[in-house]
Amino acid sequence: MVIVRISATIAVRGVNPYVLVSAQQSRRLRPDWRRPLPVILRIARLPRYRWCTNLMPAGDGNFYLYLHEHIRRVAAAGIGDRIGVELQFNAAYKGGPAHPMPKWFRDALREAPMALQNWRRLIPSRKKEMLRYFASLKSAAAQARNLERAMRVLCGQRHRFMARQWEHGR
Asked: What backbone torsions phi and psi does residue 2 show, to the nearest 5 degrees?
């Protein structure tokens, strides 16, 4: 398995800290890859810590390696710091929803054909995001409140849900 070693300065894109992975470096991991690239990340001087993450395409052949807070904290690295990272293609990665669909949501979709149709039309990452959000809900009241909001937007109503404006079920 190919390991790509990079030494780069942590920069910021919007509010997201990242390290740029060049097109040449990413081609060593997987040639001609155009979508999010699943990798195993290690900070070079912290060999026992490994994270599974995705390199995100920049649109020009380069990729962004976003470094979330936990990674930066463990690495004791901040914006402007130079770090060494090791990347390896994650062949074990399986896409799709990581969280199962809750029964209360599945039952509601079965009773609302339009919501079910719009659910099926959602892009996979949006479905995954919703299922992850539903899995984090602790109380029955929170589940009921969010089920009502989800069904409202999936039935085509214009409404805000999960920090975005929905219209026509999307």
From this structure: -75, 135
Q: Is residue 119 domain-shared with residue 69, that is, in the same domain?
A: no
pTM higher than 0.85, yes or no? no
DSSP label at residue 99 = S
Query: Looking at the 3D structure of the chain, how many domains does it have?
Result: 2
The enclosing domain of 14 has a CATH number of: 2.40.30.100
Statement to judge: residues 30 and 85 lie in one domain = yes
Residue 111: inside a domain, yes or no? yes
CA 43 – CA 30 distance, rounded (Å) = 20
Of 167, 158, 164, whose CA–CA distance to 130 is shortest? 164
- What's the CA gap between 114 and 168, in Å, rounded? 10
Same domain, 76 and 11: yes
51-79 pLDDT per residue, tens: 999 999 998 999 999 998 888 888 899 99
Q: Locate tokens 């994270």: which residue?
A: 51
Residue 138 half-sphere exposure, CB side, CA atoms within 13 Å?
Answer: 0
Q: Which domain holds residue 154?
A: 103-166
Instruction: Round to whole Å and give the CA distance between 154 and 74.
Output: 40
Per-residue pLDDT reduced to its tens digit, 84-139? 999 999 988 877 667 899 999 999 999 999 999 999 999 888 898 999 999 999 99
